[in-house]
Specification:
The protein has helices spanning 6-14, 27-36, 47-50, 62-75, 94-108, 122-130, 146-149, 159-175, 187-196, 217-220, 238-254, and strands spanning 19-23, 40-43, 80-84, 112-114, 135-140, 179-183, 201-204, 212-215. With 265 residues, the chain is of the alpha/beta class. The chain has an 8-stranded parallel β-barrel, surrounded by 7 helices. Strand 3, helix 5 (94-108) and strand 4 (112-114) form a beta-alpha-beta unit. The structure holds 3-methyl-2-oxobutanoic acid. 3-methyl-2-oxobutanoic acid is lined by residues 23, 42, 44-46, 84, 181, 204, 214, 216.
Length: 265
């Protein structure tokens, strides 16, 4: 078992081997995903949606991400752990951003951080990278900007926005990012960026040509089943499984079937 590091991901891109990534927020999920061979576990601020039940990722705090990262860390041996920098943990000022990224590593045990945005975040990406904190960029649909975007629509459909995303990707590589998440952009744009830059692109709704893929685990497992964006493939329907298991348990308790002699001392 070889630990996944930044160099592993770069090598994978060079060897045209796909990178696999999923989100996790707790020990058990992280442990099982690691055993299954996932390359990168993202402790995403999507915990705001799927764990805390918020409508957006905006309310998520740095302390919440640290808490989840610590739990994930205890379950993982091989995968690389990337922690998300939540809304306003890096945008207010430079020093706070560096301090918060440091906390994700020192307290959470993250091996890299992810932050959203292009041109505006270049200075902090550059500084963090130089300080030894690997940074994963995030372009396209950046959910922390949901109110500016007026929703979760596809980004980069217009030529001007596509050009901006493309140029931002090049600039993020220059600033020292080791990879870039590309979210909800046309497949052709994902392809163009992936071919242009030397660092890996990890797509989510960005088509099949990215160097790797990521999904929110609760989406692909069918646990967060209220909505299903087009780009999500549900590999299981665990939401239904869970409902049925709970119904069965309740019925058996009411019918005095559980616990039986077998489960008693
Ligand atoms: O928070 C998250 O889960 C993410 C992924 C959607 C990439 O940023």
């Amino acid at each position: 078992m070889k630990k996944v590091r930044v160099a592993t991901l770069i090598e994978k891109k060079q060897n045209k081997e796909k990178i696999t990534s999923l989100t996790a927020y707790d020990y058990t999920f992280a442990y099982l995903m690691d055993e299954a061979g996932i390359d990168v576990i993202l402790v995403g601020d999507s915990c705001g949606n799927v764990i805390s039940g918020y409508d957006t990722t905006i309310p998520v705090t740095i302390d919440e991400i640290i808490y989840h990262t610590k739990s994930v860390k205890r379950g993982v041996k091989r995968a690389m752990i990337v922690a998300d920098m939540p809304f306003m943990s890096y945008q207010c000022n430079f020093e706070d951003g560096i301090y918060n990224a440091g906390r994700l590593m020192k307290e959470g045990g993250a091996e890299a951080v992810k932050l959203e945005g292009g041109e505006l975040v270049l200075p902090i990406v550059e500084r963090l990278s130089k300080l030894g904190i690997p940074v994963l960029g995030h372009l396209g649909l950046t959910p922390q900007s949901v109110f500016s975007f007026s929703g979760y629509g596809v980004r980069g459909k217009k030529m001007s926005e596509a050009e901006r995303i493309y140029n931002d990707a090049i600039a993020l590589e220059k600033a020292g990012a080791f990879g870039i998440v590309l979210e909800k952009i046309p497949a052709e744009l994902g392809k163009k960026i992936s071919e242009k830059i030397n660092i890996p692109t990890i797509g989510i709704g960005a088509g099949p040509f990215c160097d790797g893929q990521i999904l929110v685990s609760y989406d692909m497992l069918g646990l967060y089943d209220k909505i299903k964006p087009k780009f999500v493939k549900r590999y299981r329907e665990f939401g239904n499984e869970l409902r049925n298991a709970v119904k069965e348990y309740c019925q058996e308790v009411k019918d005095r079937i559980y616990p039986s002699e077998e489960e008693s001392y």
